[in-house]
Design a protein that fits this description.
Helix 2 runs antiparallel to helix 4 (48-85), helix 4 packs antiparallel against helix 5 and helix 5 crosses helix 7. It is elongated and about 60 Å long. It has one domain. By secondary structure, it is mainly α. The longest helix is centred in the middle third of the chain and has 38 residues, at 48-85. It has helices at 2-9, 11-35, 40-43, 48-85, 91-102, 107-114, 118-137.
Length: 143
């Protein structure tokens, strides 16, 4: 029963992963742009170096635009999901779901932060997922 809730809540981690992939791609493109040496143009008869640099710079700009859009999407997802989590009646459920899915914390770190045992956190997490699914996802279509 809680698989649906986990899948729904993991939208945040999925969006974060996509942003990281895009950021890594930008880093690679920037490194590629710094390796293009304009002096090569003088030594070789072709003007390909300038064309390559212009293409890489354009690709960086396009990728950065996509990256910015993904960040905006992530913020919208976080805001929506956090609002849904906050509808739960038990503040412990709200806390655990926020720490786990919005903040990306491990159960171990959640236990330390809340001052309870790991086992208690995992048990509460299971109850929180059930409550979330019943209150928020019951009549909602998949994301």
């Amino acid at each position: 029963m809680t698989t649906k809730a986990k899948t729904y809540l993991y939208q945040i981690q999925d969006a974060n992963a996509r942003i990281k992939i895009k950021a890594d791609a930008i880093e690679v493109l920037r490194a590629k742009a710094t390796r293009v040496n304009p002096e090569i143009k003088e030594r070789v008869q072709s003007s390909g170096c300038g064309d390559i640099l212009a293409a890489v710079v354009a690709e960086i700009a396009d990728t950065e635009k996509e990256w910015a859009e993904q960040i905006q999407t992530l913020e919208r997802i976080k805001k929506r999901i956090m609002g849904e989590i906050e509808t739960l009646d038990d503040v412990r459920y709200v806390t655990i779901l926020k720490y786990r899915y919005v903040d990306g914390m491990t159960f171990e770190n959640i236990a330390v932060k809340m001052g309870v045992s790991f086992r208690h956190v995992t048990r509460l997490h299971g109850h929180a997922l059930v409550a979330f699914e019943e209150k928020v996802l019951k009549n909602k279509k998949s994301p």
